[in-house]
Specification:
The protein is α+β, with helices and mostly antiparallel strands and about 130 residues long. It has 3 helices and 7 strands.
Length: about 130
């Protein structure tokens, strides 16, 4: 009599565990996919003051024709190459997002951030403010 109960309990437990295992796998897969998307998207900010409506392309993602937000925000999944434009005119690009996540005209032009007297830096700053 006891062995019937044990056998019945073992079968019931196995069925419950199989049902839980199947559901858990689906949940883990969904969560993992969501986490990967969230972790791989990065936002930076184009600043002189906030530079809104600037065209940019996430070249490494092949995600083109995007526009910065009102706070200068731009978002790419892979920040290894971002090209900044005004219309078809390419201003420059970055090959990595600076650690502080701010992109200044100097960064776009590939010069030192401390270089504020360079004619190209001054011209780009004036263009971005206009």
């Amino acid at each position: 009599m006891i062995s019937k109960y044990l056998l019945g309990s073992a079968i019931t437990a196995s069925l419950l565990l199989m049902g839980c295992s199947s559901g858990s796998t689906d949940t883990t897969t969904t969560t993992s996919t969501t986490d990967t998307t969230t972790l791989s998207t990065t936002t930076g900010y184009v600043v002189d003051s906030a530079v809104q409506n600037m065209d940019y392309d996430c070249v490494a993602d092949n995600d083109m024709n995007k526009v910065t937000g009102t706070d200068g925000a731009f978002t790419c999944q892979n920040m290894s190459q971002v090209r900044f434009r005004i219309g078809e005119m390419v201003l420059g690009e970055i090959n990595a997002l600076p650690q502080d996540k701010y992109v200044f005209p100097q960064d776009i032009l590939g010069t030192d951030r401390g270089n504020i007297t360079d004619a190209k830096v001054t011209a780009m700053a004036q263009l971005l403010v206009a």
